[in-house]
Amino acid sequence: MKRTGILFFPAFDWSLGDSHPEREERLLYTQEQLFEEGVLDLPQIKQFSPRVATMKDVLRTQALFPSPGAHIESLDPHLISAGSSLLLGEAQVKGEIDNGFVMARPPGHHSGATVWGNRGFCSLNNEAILVNYLRARFGKKRIAIVDTDVHHGDGTQDIFYHDPNVLFISLHQDGRTLYPGSGFVNEKGGPNAWDQTLNIPLPPGTGDEGYHYILENWVLPRLQAFAPEIIINSAGQDNHFTDPLASMNLTARGYGRITELLQPDLAVLEGGYSIEGALPYVNLAILLALAGEDYHHVREPQKLKRTTLTLAALKPYIQDLQKQQQTVKQSFTIQNKPYFPKGNWISIPHSVYYDTEGFQETRHDYVRECSNCAGTVYIESRRYTETSILVRIPFEACPICEQAGYDLWDHLQKPNEGFANGMLQNQLHDKQYLWNRKEGLMEF
């Protein structure tokens, strides 16, 4: 048995529409199922109440453009969802529980380093905010995130793409067949964090046997080599064979086995939109596996009707995918602007479509090449005609990269630069600064 924490937050006041798949019933049916099964009466299960994340918790990880104030009216449920992850993560680190399951909505893994609005049902990245909270408050150094949502966790990847101390692994339906159209094997991390991002795009029809084979033969060895202090599972449940938005064939028991194999310290709910046919059973199996109980008796009411790929058919695909991933070489473009501090600055164009609200964010990312730390990051982010700037001094920054961050920040506030908004994320000293040409400087 393991002491397992559980937290429910259905977000009754947040909806994308009465008939939208991302709605409060996603959790209500699960609550009823767990009550009926008596799982919440198990001695090792401990329930927690939600809490609200602070704006400082958010800004440590994500820049809200053009300013945090522009998002305030819509952020309440997202702050509670993120805060619930912080609460259960803190309980695990303090030893109050062995592991936990954050059953909260809204989800978050499509929300990236810069935020202009909601995309993929996500405004704040719950797992990323949690990771940096544990690093800032509890001194954690190496953390792994394994995203098993059917959609690529592009926002989480974006936030940690240049961070060598966070291993991000995403198993998802191939981006050529599903939103957000990313997550390919050549996406392996920035110049200072090469090979710390592992994407495993899977063909439609991959079922339990295929997932378990990949975990045992690819994901678990990678986790063992990285040796993380904490493993967080972005526990999306839209791989289930009844999910209306995707085409994979996992069962509830298959999810239980995934959890048993990964042994995450914390599972955080992401997607999953088969509200009655899958979620109550998948959540039950995950919770039982976390608590060290038998999950093999869990059965969903519907029968699998889709064609599932056999392991014999899938193995050659996986082996070829591994070869492709291993042979990808670093290929980065150096582009030094006149005002960039000394060093080689790697240029990475980046475009983000906000499907929920229907606009495009055009980004240009630069990271200072460094052999001693994650490197200073400089991002120019544009929505329509408005450009905002993010400067990030990373955790454990070396003195040269730290100074580079300060120099960039000072330069951008000069009157002739033409930028109206900016943010400095000083993760090294856990300080965040916002600058607006009208309102001046603010510290969080």
UniProtKB/TrEMBL annotation:
<dbReference type="Pfam" id="PF00850">
    <property type="entry name" value="Hist_deacetyl"/>
</dbReference>
<dbReference type="GO" id="GO:0004407">
    <property type="term" value="F:histone deacetylase activity"/>
</dbReference>
<dbReference type="InterPro" id="IPR023696">
    <property type="entry name" value="Ureohydrolase_dom_sf"/>
</dbReference>
<dbReference type="InterPro" id="IPR023801">
    <property type="entry name" value="His_deacetylse_dom"/>
</dbReference>
<comment type="similarity">
    <text>Belongs to the histone deacetylase family.</text>
</comment>
<dbReference type="InterPro" id="IPR000286">
    <property type="entry name" value="HDACs"/>
</dbReference>
<protein>
    <submittedName>
        <fullName>Acetoin utilization deacetylase AcuC</fullName>
    </submittedName>
</protein>
<dbReference type="GO" id="GO:0040029">
    <property type="term" value="P:epigenetic regulation of gene expression"/>
</dbReference>
<dbReference type="InterPro" id="IPR037138">
    <property type="entry name" value="His_deacetylse_dom_sf"/>
</dbReference>
<feature type="domain" description="Histone deacetylase">
    <location>
        <begin position="76"/>
        <end position="277"/>
    </location>
</feature>
